[in-house]
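Database export, one record per block. Field names are fixed; values are copied verbatim from the stored entry.
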Amino acid sequence: MSETIFATEATIRLAIFLGVLAAMALWEVAAPRRRREIPRVIRWTNNLALVVVDTVILRLTFPILAVGLAVMAEDRGWGLFNNLDVPVWVAIIVSMLLLDLAIYLQHVMFHAVPGLWRLHRMHHADLDFDATTGLRFHPVEILISMGIKLAVVAALGPPAVVVLLFEVVLNATALFNHANIDLPRPVDCVLRLFVVTPDMHRVHHSTDPRETNSNYGFNLPWWDRLLGTYIAQPAKGHKGMEIGIEQFRTQRDLWLDQMLVQPLRGPASGYALDPNSGLKDSAE
């Protein structure tokens, strides 16, 4: 079974990715939450080009990715769950929860460490918020994230099918919770008890540092609530809030070449532990 999962991983992930992306794009046209400020052709061409760059670099750098490592760990008896006699359903549930917690903690780390924030802020520098924002990550951040994920998989030893499921769900929810879609408010209130919704995650893309450094979850909303990083709504409302970060505000900053060099430009301000993050708001 593990070999089958490994062989079909790329096909499964690509099919679901394209299907969810198409669904979100159509939904954004039919029922947008916010007015689009930047022409879609500028943002989509550059954000999708970045996905290609990220994928090529990742494949050239790592000879094996998360699902492949899970298969290898299962064969060689590496990791916690490959050495514990527990029911399969326990391994599946606990593995999904711990993998999601690892992504949450990694996200917090990328906001807390200035050098990592330089990489991650490219994701926040998008001037609009839609499904392609969920794909916009610097290649070096992608490599670091994969290294962390591989370490977690090796230590945890989750079933390969769980790793594949987690990867598929993570990609799908990243597209969903970045989508510019107008969910009915009662639906959003119920849904965000179980999954991160676009209105919940949009707060995280506010230019207000207090809101930028909140709502770190991608799949599950529980870690933010349990660990005190949850903000229910933006101070200026979803239609009044400003998207992005203060440093990069021009359309030229949205081009692929500029995105790739953003970590080298300007100070690493606005990160979670930046002592100056609240000065502007205090002055106002």
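Remark 1: The chain has one domain: 2-182+246-263.
Remark 2: Confidence is low (pLDDT under 50) at residues 279-284.
End of record.
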